[in-house]
Amino acid sequence: MKTLALISLIFAQQAFADLEWSTKASASSTVFQRDPESEPRYKANEVFTVQPRMSWEHDSWKVVGEYFFQLGRHDGPRDDVRDFYVLLNLDSQYLKAGRTIEYWGVTESQQLTNIINQTDIRADIFGDERLGQTLIKWGLVTDRHELSLYLLPEFRARRFPAKASRPRFFSGVNRLPINTEKTTSLTNPDWVARVIGSWDAFEYSLSLFDGLSREPLLALQATPPNLELYYETLKQLGADFQYTGENLLLKAEGVLRQTKSQSYSAITYGFEYTFFDVLQSGGDIGGFLEHLVDKRDSQKGGRHLLYNDNHIFYGLRWTGNDTANSSLLAGFLKQTDTRSQYGRLQFELRGFLGLRYSLDSLFIVSQTENDNFAAADNFVKITGEFTF
Amino acid sequence: MKFLKPGLFISLQLALLISSQGLAKDQGYSIIKKSLELDEGFKDNVVKAQMTLRDKSGQSSVRQFTVKTLEGADEEDKTILTFEAPKDIKGTALLTHNKKNSDNLQWLYLPTIRRVKRISTGNKSGPFVGSEFAFEDLVSHQLEKYSYKKVADSVANGISCYVVEQTPKDKSSGYAKQIVWIDKSEHRLQKVHYFDKKLAHFKTLELSGYKKFKKKFWRPAKSEMTNLVSGKSTIIAWTEYKFGQNLKDRSFTKAALKR
User: Fold this and answer.
1) Which residues of chain A have a CB within 8 Å of the CB of B115?
2) Quick one: pLDDT band at residue A7, thresholds 50, 70, 90?
3) Within chain A, where are the H helices?
4) pLDDT tens-digit profile of A370-388?
5) Interchain CB distance below 8 Å, B253 and A143
6) Record: contact B130-A350, CB cut-off 8 A
7) For the segment B10-66, what is each residue's pLDDT rounded down to a tens digit?
8) Kind and range of the H or E run holding B30
9) Chain B residues inside the 8 Å CB shell of A285
């Protein structure tokens, strides 16, 4: 009995020794240029974010958990379990079950093929944040390829900014009722099959999705007549491609989508050219250009809220390769038909007290009444982040 | 740990090394070849590293990482370098596939954005995380990617050495040439001088504290790179070398980085 207890104790000690914790905490302040003409009437908002993360790895097993909590001074709290999954790695296969986030895609401006997770526009107005997705994933790995099959038994609706949030894109949308073309459940899950591969300087992936679209339509429900957010069922064939040369990066990704209301294609393609170790400073400077094309009918099935139909994205990227891990990205998104244009500037570095500081700014170069960001407002967001 | 092992880095103070002795042209090639051959058969290893970056004023910052290396046929080793500290870059991982006859392939996993980014093959001479080590210093040495010339016999770290001039064939290398000191007794790399494109000696790497593992494979306890122009230096302390970890090829893929 004592031996058994001793073995259990040794095992427990070993198990805890493999457990790792870290927490990322940040505070940001966003300052808007325009005086508010309507609610909400604040000119600046402070947001606090905490993300505790744990991971445990032993032999072939791995367990990961990450919780996201954010509190805005003017627009309240939001939270999400971003990760909570178990991973079993076998020789040439693996099995993953639980909540997690997966990013797909190669282009800079948007990732058309990225379909697993829902976008959290409340946590990040640029759509860079994603909500955790419950899934069961099986993977088969060879030296050059990986085949993965996903079952997605949970549908997550897009998270929009609250009524009190600024910038005011999608103002009030978060309060609309939500309707879906089908019910997603363990017995009726969405599913995905994906192959990724590489050959020398080329990388590619091909995916097939069948389930509820991640993009809601602003639709009119019949009874009672009222606006709602409607999620259609979607079949999507996606592909991406990347070539990495000496200084040149070629990227493309595209989708063919079929819904009840329409079938259409969308593609993003472009290049990035980088000068390395410029003037022997250690820093790299790159220029990029992407063309975003989307052939959808914006009114079929309902009003499509946000997509890039014929846009150019271009800009510069600087990477310091220095002890502060500093980087800068200046990008411009231009609608080629209406000529509306928006700029985004991102700068970050590690600095005083070991904190990571970042500046993220949106600025209007030119604007038209009917473009996606008609409610946009110049702003600057400054963040200090500490990981412990 | 195959990077920073004997034969990986090359350079030297030319003035000291130009020998008046008539040396066979290919002797340098044979010396480096033997150095590499002596390290064959290690299969895989794992090592922990603490990298200390010092600037001219003496201020320092520390990074910690683990390197896993899988030996491949024809010098095509694979490595994954994973950061543990500072905490804000913990989990950042650099995967390298060394290629014998073409450019090496490198991918970087950034956990904060959960994405793997392919690193361009042109990014050889840039500093690795702000250190005095360039990306090209952190890959396994491939014999045929350089031309060699033995230039002298000399002493480094109190040990009698061959001195070999090594010129990268790749035009995008940040070095015009490198000169290495390989000790005569065990064929271990003892010192490297790096020359820039203007043929100025600007960096020196010194390796010390060698220990033999598995009765065959020598590994250093310390690698110190000094930049003679900026006055900065980077010291890597290597600890906890482990061999025979049964590492698998499929753990060294782009997809595996995300898992």
Assistant:
1) 103
2) low
3) 2-17
4) 666 666 788 999 999 999 8
5) yes
6) no
7) 333 333 343 434 444 578 999 999 998 898 888 999 999 999 999 888 888 899 999
8) helix B27-38
9) none
Calpha distance A324→B56 (Å, rounded) = 16
Distance set, CA B37 to CA B6, B27, B137, B217 (Å): 10, 15, 20, 11
A42 burial (CB, 10 Å; 0-12 / 13-18 / 19+) is middle
> Which residue type sits at A325?
N
Is the model's pTM score more than 0.90? no
Q: Is B46 on the interface with A (CB under 8 A)?
A: no
B73 vs A: CB within 8 A: no
pLDDT mean by block of 10 residues, chain B; 259 residues? 40 38 66 90 94 89 93 88 88 89 85 84 80 87 90 91 93 91 93 94 95 92 94 95 88 81
Spatial distance between the Cα atoms of B245 and B44, rounded to a whole number of angstroms: 6
**B15 Cβ neighbours under 8 A, 6+ residues apart:** none
- Measuring CA to CA, how many Å separate B185 from each of B25, B188, B189, B214? 21, 8, 11, 18
* Residue of chain A nearest B230, judged by CA positions: A281
Are A324 and B258 in contact (CB < 8 Å)? no
For β-strands A93-100 and B201-208, DSSP reports them as: unpaired
Chain A residue with minimal CA distance to B55? A323
Tell me if chain A has a CB within 8 Å of the CB of B70: no
Q: Is B190 helix (H, G, I), strand (E, B) or coil?
A: strand
Residues of A in contact with B203 (CB under 8 A): none
* Cα–Cα distance for residue pair B187/B198, rounded to 1 Å: 30
